[in-house]
Amino acid sequence: MLELRLVQGSLLKKVLEAIKELVNDANFDCSASGFSLQAMDSSHVALVALLLRSEGFEHYRCDRNLSMGMNLNNMSKMLKCAGNDDIITIKADDGSDTVTFMFESPTQDKISDFEMKLMDIDSEHLGIPEAEYHAIVRMPSAEFARICKDLSSIGDTVVISVTKEGVKFSTRGDIGAANIVCRQNTTVDKPEEATVVEMNEPVSLTFALRYMNSFTKATPLSNTVTISLSNELPVVVEYKIAEMGYVRFYLAPKIEEDEEETKPEV
Amino acid sequence: MNNGSRKRPPPPSQPLPANQPKSQAFSQEDEFVDEDVFLDETLISEDEESLILRDIEQRQALVSRIAKWIRPHLSSEYLSQSCSIFFQQLEIDYVIGESHKELLPNSSGAAAIIRIFGVTKEGHSVCCNVHGFEPYFYISCPPGMRPDDISGFHKILEGRMKESNRNSKVPQFVRRIEMVQRKSIMHYQQHNSQPFLKIVVALPTMVASCRGILDRGIQIDGLGMKSFMTYESNVLFALRFMIDCNIVGGNWIEVPAGKYKKTAKNLSYCQLEFDCLYSELISHAPEGDFSKMAPFRILSFDIECAGRKGHFPEPTHDPVIQIANLVTLQGEGQPFVRNVMTLKSCSPIVGTEVMSFDTEREVLLAWRDFIREVDPDIIIGYNICKFDLPYLIERADALKIAEFPILGRIRSSRVRVKDTTFSSRQLGTRESKEVTIEGRVQFDLLQAMQRDHKLSSYSLNSVSAHFLSEQKEDVHHSIISDLQNGNADTRRRLAVYCLKDAYLPQRLLDKLMFIYNYVEMARVTGVPISFLLSRGQSIKVLSQLLRKAKQKNLVIPNVKQAGSDQGTYEGATVLEARAGFYEKPIATLDFASLYPSIMMAYNLCYCSLVTPEDVRKLNLPPESVNKTPSGETFVKSNLQKGILPEILEELLAARRRAKADLKEAKDPLEKAVLDGRQLALKISANSVYGFTGATVGQLPCIEISSSVTSYGRQMIEHTKNLVEDKFTTLNGYENNAEVIYGDTDSVMVQFGVSSVEEAMKLGREAAEYISGTFTKPIKLEFEKIYYPFLLISKKRYAGLFWTKPDTFDKMDTKGIETVRRDNCLLVKNLVNDCLHKILIDRDIPGAVQHVKNAISDLLMNRMDLSLLVITKGLTKTGDDYEVKAAHVELAERMRKRDAATAPNVGDRVPYVIIKGAKGAKAYEKSEDPIYVLENNIPIDPQYYLENQISKPILRIFEPILKNASRELLHGSHTRSISISTPSNSGIMKFAKKQLTCIGCKALLSNGDHTLCSHCKGREAELYCKTVAQVSNLETLFGKLWTQCQECQGSLHQDVLCTSRDCPIFYRRKKAQKDMAEAKLQLDRWNF
């Protein structure tokens, strides 16, 4: 028996919007500690990790560890039917091949039940081990989204370099080149507008903008984004979900030789 | 060689790309010209010859080894020249030599000598030098020219010829000009004949240069500048000779005793070599005893080269290490010679003579000696014309073995290699080498396959699998070097492989009866056998036309190639298809040989066509002309009998005879000959119409072809109306008949009756009734019933085929994905199985379930990769394609990975579609199947579902099932999927697999590594399940491995095969991978 009641239902809606562009079908893993998902995108270049800790739910009941395969497109279709202020409850019975989403309006005058058929997804469970990163950049998430969008109109890849002064995003394309530098800036009114760079070693890595842009779909989840970089490690782009957990995106840096292979055609 | 005037400028609308010069110039399949070869130029000097001979003495041991296979000795009658010589000719060519002093005492200087190569019924090889035949052509005699003016004209022409052939030593170019009475084949003419000039020239190539002069115009005293239309000036010399002597390809020729002279000095290796006059030859029509085949010697061979890693073998670097040979007598089941020549030692092989040599030079020379002693008439192999033969010759050149390329029948005449560019709309541009081996016919099975059969792959392996249900191991050429550098046993392995490559072409040749079919085709159409592979259809029709025209005193104009500006004409009609699933018998009424019948019935021919101008002028009585539905006028046969109808009548009559004889025949060989003949006759009859319609052909005549199709359209409509008018309840029939579909030459009728027998009766009645309304010999035949019948759309249908009331004959499909080449095998199998279930088992729910299972397997990644491979031909390089295509992009990517294994232009490229980023195009997602297997890359099931399976399946099910798409493509069976993890992707270098519960897939917490606490209770059950899975996979893999070992012919050696065409290969690889994974899972228990 599984029953998860989330007062801030819009959160789940935002999570789905954040990941459904990268992942089609995935297993949601439920355990006593929380509700999570790990999946590779269909081209096996990026990895998505989602965690919603049990403490964040108003009511959390999970009798046994459970893996539920869902088609994220269909799931998103159903969640779209929930109002932004609705309370969402996820329910599943042991051994059942369906999951139920229940939406309650804040005034309790409307309750909707949506039942979705589950999928049986046979896939390997992947995770990226925690590691020490050479550089960690925290910046406003909207700013990061804007940078990725702007750069992708010029080039296909972005070089992210972190130095003492700040973080530089640069690209190069047929029509020209672009460089955007964000300086360390902690003297702001609101803490979420700060740009903080913690650096042990300077790093400079290249990534495909196509994926970066997909990651920024998670912007509504959090005001800030944390980008952790290390040479020879995938970048982690993390959006914290207040008091509950996070959505993390991992992306392998582009290396010269596979540039040809994965280079997106225009 | 002045053939410059023949090449037309390329059409202006298509400027030539710089990287493919002159491809346009050869775009016509029949753009072949005579080439004069001077006898003395090709021969090797005496010194050299003696050097070769001395060389032979040194290798006496080898020669005696080979000598046991020589041809039977000549009997005394042959030796004393007291008997007539009968032989079946295979090859006719000509050389330029001194004209024969004794046979032709009146002429001197260079002349063309025809050489006929053949075999007697005892198996003696024959080379017959025919003298006295001269090249010629016609022009129409200019009005006002009298016989006395000819000598003047002769002088002018001779002068012009001298100017344009300055460096020729020939004393006289134009031998003579005669005035003859002939008639042009074009258009109906009321007069019987008019004067033509027959221009006889010295050498065959002069026909072309003389024609060029006459085309451009010539100044004639009293008549001014005049250009002439030439007639029959595009006929190859050898063909001209055959036509004039009534010789057809592969027939028997008799040279009476006393009429031939043994040559003073033998120039060839043939046992019987003699000179004779062309007028003394007796050509026997292929009937009775003369329809048999002489015991030709057929050599099938294959070579192996040791390539370097990453490179395709090149003759300048890579040695020839083995040559396998098989020699078979025509008509015998088993080869009488089976040997393999190897570089370095090789362990013995049962039933095969292994000849090992220490140097490559010895291998090559041994092969040359072998060819000379065994003296094969026909050389076959797979891709020999483009690879094996040129490779051997270029390799010998690189090794400076000048005496190697003496492979022909002419003593000390070297083999000539010519670069050719063959380009056609179907096959694309192919650059290749043409090797001329005098007196021996080359028959490359690859070319024959590409010509006659549409297959998804033309590798020897897949062709053998298709026709012989036999496979061979496919050793990648980079492994060959390793085997060669091993020991005698690894070389033996290579030799076995090489022998199989030599054996399979012979098997294919026998199985598909290529010799019978091609010889019969040559006999029917009258062209030499070698033309059949290298030339197109039109030369065959032209040959028949020329023969017939000669009998009728007609001459054929050499029409300037008009290109495509003559426009197109309306093709055949297709009645609208009433799609649906018919569970009542459908009768099919066919017109027998519709187009040939129309041409015969309405006397459509070049010579019966009346020009619009003549229609007005000649005032022909309306009862003796036919006005065709397309508006042309043709006279009826009482005024002028057409030649084409006459050719067709003879072809069809001969076919009827052959079919009747076929029924009588008992002997399987005789049956094979007759069946080959009737097939050849049918194809020839049908190609006559195409000949008149080919706008770039030899003698296009759109008036004829458009008339033919217009009559065809009219008849289909007429039939439909008659059937629907007559078979009605009003006329006392049970039901109203309904025409549900009609194509080019058939109409499908539903009479409404429910038994096959009744439908047959009505079908026969309808056929007879309607036939009566047509001009003879047009005949509507009732042939078959389709029951049940699934009509999908125009040109797409399937049904059970009944010709007798009690059982059906087979399942017949048209235009359905069972035959398309660019679909993956999955689609083909699925469609076939569904049709089988629907039509034969009448089990529609079963068919639906079958589709669901297949889709589920696809989503669960249980599908064999071989079923998902799509192949497409690579006809040009990536830059030339306007849009990006999956196979082209893949070829490009593979070239970057490893240039040696990447597909080249002309190859067919196999690929699968893999998962890619969202929105990635199909061309970005194509991948080499082997690469996919090795790296465990997940395929994209959605692509296969949406782009491959969905359309063909829905087409079949839509007439049967409501909501087919929802039922089949979106049901609950699509909710089980498997996402596999590739081993080479970017993120996988960093990600770690986390253990999940074997029972329920839930993520495991730290302590456990097999099952979650919840599943602990099922431990025993789950353990057994895992063990069972491993052992199942082991068994499967074991079976597949054994299968591959059997295929390679050795059960105690490693399997090396990496054949991209073999389904077993993919299954074996996959089973191996699955087994390894299952074992890993089992290891997790680790009690």
Automatic annotation (TrEMBL), chain A:
Report a single Gene Ontology molecular function: DNA polymerase processivity factor activity
Annotated compartments: Nucleus
Highest taxon, organism lineage: Eukaryota
| Proliferating cell nuclear antigen PCNA N-terminal domain segment(s) | 1-125
Q: Which GO terms describe its cellular component?
A: PCNA complex
What keywords sit in the KW lines? Answer: DNA replication, DNA-binding, Nucleus
Q: Which residues form the Proliferating cell nuclear antigen PCNA C-terminal domain?
A: 127-254
The record, for SUPFAM superfamilies, names: DNA clamp (SSF55979)
An example GO BP is: mismatch repair
Q: What does this protein do?
A: This protein is an auxiliary protein of DNA polymerase delta and is involved in the control of eukaryotic DNA replication by increasing the polymerase's processivity during elongation of the leading strand.
Q: Which family does it belong to?
A: Belongs to the PCNA family.
Could you identify this protein by its name?
DNA sliding clamp PCNA
The taxonomic lineage of its organism, from the top, reads: Eukaryota, Viridiplantae, Streptophyta, Embryophyta, Tracheophyta
Automatic annotation (TrEMBL), chain B:
User: Which family does the UniProt entry place this protein in?
Assistant: Belongs to the DNA polymerase type-B family.
List the catalytic activities from the record.
Answer: DNA(n) + a 2'-deoxyribonucleoside 5'-triphosphate = DNA(n+1) + diphosphate
User: Which coenzymes or cofactors are required?
Assistant: [4Fe-4S] cluster
Describe the location of the DNA polymerase delta/zeta catalytic subunit N-terminal domain by residue ranges: 132-207
> Could you confirm whether the keyword Cell membrane appears in this record?
no
**InterPro entries membership:** DNA-dir_DNA_pol_B, DNA-dir_DNA_pol_B_CS, DNA-dir_DNA_pol_B_exonuc, DNA-dir_DNA_pol_B_multi_dom, DNA/RNA_pol_sf, DNA_pol_B_thumb, DNA_pol_palm_dom_sf, DNA_pol_type-B
Its chief place of residence is nucleus
What this protein is reported to do is described as: This polymerase possesses two enzymatic activities: DNA synthesis (polymerase) and an exonucleolytic activity that degrades single-stranded DNA in the 3'- to 5'-direction.
The alphabetical list of record keywords is: 4Fe-4S, DNA replication, DNA-binding, DNA-directed DNA polymerase, Exonuclease, Hydrolase, Iron, Iron-sulfur, Metal-binding, Nuclease, Nucleotidyltransferase, Nucleus, Transferase, Zinc, Zinc-finger
A cellular component term (GO) from this record? delta DNA polymerase complex
Q: Which GO terms describe its molecular function?
A: 3'-5'-DNA exonuclease activity; 4 iron, 4 sulfur cluster binding; DNA binding; DNA-directed DNA polymerase activity; nucleotide binding; zinc ion binding
Q: How does it assemble?
A: Heterodimer with subunits of 125 kDa and 50 kDa. The 125 kDa subunit contains the polymerase active site and most likely the active site for the 3'-5' exonuclease activity.
Provide the protein name: DNA polymerase
The UniProt entry, under Pfam families, shows: DNA_pol_B, DNA_pol_B_exo1, POL3_N, zf-C4pol
EC numbers listed for it are 2.7.7.7
Q: Which residues form the DNA-directed DNA polymerase family B multifunctional domain?
A: 527-960
Taxonomic superkingdom: Eukaryota
Q: Where is the DNA-directed DNA polymerase family B exonuclease domain?
A: 230-463
Tell me the segments the record calls region Disordered. 1-28
Major enzyme class: transferase
